[in-house]
Write a structure and sequence with these properties.
By secondary structure, the chain is an alpha+beta fold. The chain folds into 3 domains: 4-67; 73-170, no CATH class; 183-298, Glucose Permease (Domain IIA) (Distorted Sandwich), CATH 2.70.70. The protein has 4 helices and 14 strands. β9 (232-240) and β10 form a beta hairpin. α1 packs parallel to α3. 18% of the residues are buried.
């Protein structure tokens, strides 16, 4: 087994031939050194390249993180403004409920809302400040959604209350049965124009020309349309909610018993039938069976609720 390595150098151009002999150990040593240097160089290059990529990725991540933080801060500010605006809606809700004589929603309920859909957090986010900001945003969103649903529910209740009040108002006598005509005899004790005795007058007398149209003062149903002793031709309307109105001394009637009536609808014409000495309308308002001064219900003659 040889212990040396021959290296032959040949040059045709210079007609050169040389044989170099080196010990095998030296050749192996040199080859090992070269291999180590080569491998080390490759490893160093790879390491530097990797560090460069890591540094670039870190820089990009820091830039993206700063951008995300700025966006989160902007979103948080927008939510704070939305909270402020919604607080104004809460104030408006309280005013509306006061106007319609409804109980206010308790402030504690407004502050907690009624809960929205829970948003899943992101545990993979390592930055504590970012996680804290996200948690605050999620909490604000939950409260805002709860307030939104609560406001919707409150608006439905207010709308139902308005509908109920409008229904009630439409059935409360509130307009003049003979617009433009004056009351000539009021509610209370008076001297009877026929026999000159003092008697209770259970309505108001409104002077008007014979044949002038009488209108209903509220929605309802005709409960009587015919002759009544002393009252002559009379229309009685049941308005519901305990209200009834009577229109007496009519010349002729334009409705019959059972007819549905709307406020402002023509129901009869002025006459002087029954116990009467001149054309006029005897108008009565009855509440839960009691005869009430009608003047309280025709004073605001220009107000009509449709």
């Amino acid at each position: 087994m040889t212990n040396s390595v021959d290296i032959i150098l040949v040059s045709k151009k210079h007609n050169f031939l040389k044989n170099l002999r080196f010990p095998l150990a030296v050749v192996l040593f040199v080859a090992g050194i070269f291999t180590i240097i080569t491998v080390s160089t490759i490893i160093l290059c790879i390491s530097r390249t990797r560090r460069t990529f890591v540094r670039l990725n870190l820089t990009r991540a820091e830039r993206d993180g700063a951008s995300l933080t700025a966006r989160l801060d902007s979103l948080k500010s927008a939510l704070e403004r939305a909270q402020f605006v919604f607080d104004q809606h809460v104030t408006m809700d309280n005013r509306e409920r006061t106007y319609w004589q409804m109980a206010h929603v308790h402030p504690d309920i407004w502050s907690m809302g009624i809960g929205g859909k829970q948003v899943e957090r992101s545990p993979e986010i390592a930055n504590k400040n970012t996680r804290r900001t996200l948690d605050e945003i999620y909490e604000s969103l939950d409260v805002l959604k709860g307030k939104y649903y609560l406001r919707q529910s409150s608006l439905r209740e207010i709308h139902e209350q308005i509908e109920d009040n409008l229904l009630l108002w439409s059935h409360i006598p509130s307009i003049h049965p003979l617009p433009g005509c004056r009351i000539c005899s009021g509610f209370g004790y008076r001297t009877d124009p026929i026999d000159r005795h003092i008697r209770m007058h259970w309505g108001v007398d409104i002077g008007a020309p014979r044949g002038k149209t009488i209108i209903a003062t509220a929605d309802g149903v005709v409960s009587h349309a015919g002759w009544v002793s002393g009252y002559g031709w009379t229309v009685v309307i049941d308005h519901g909610f305990g209200f009834k109105t009577a229109y007496a001394h009519c010349q002729n009637l334009l409705v019959k018993k059972g007819d549905p009536i709307k406020r402002g609808q023509s129901i009869a014409r002025v006459g002087s039938t029954g116990r009467s000495i001149s054309p006029h309308l005897h108008y009565e308002v009855r509440v839960s069976g009691m005869k009430i001064n009608p003047y309280k219900y025709i004073n605001n003659s220009e107000v009509i609720f449709d």
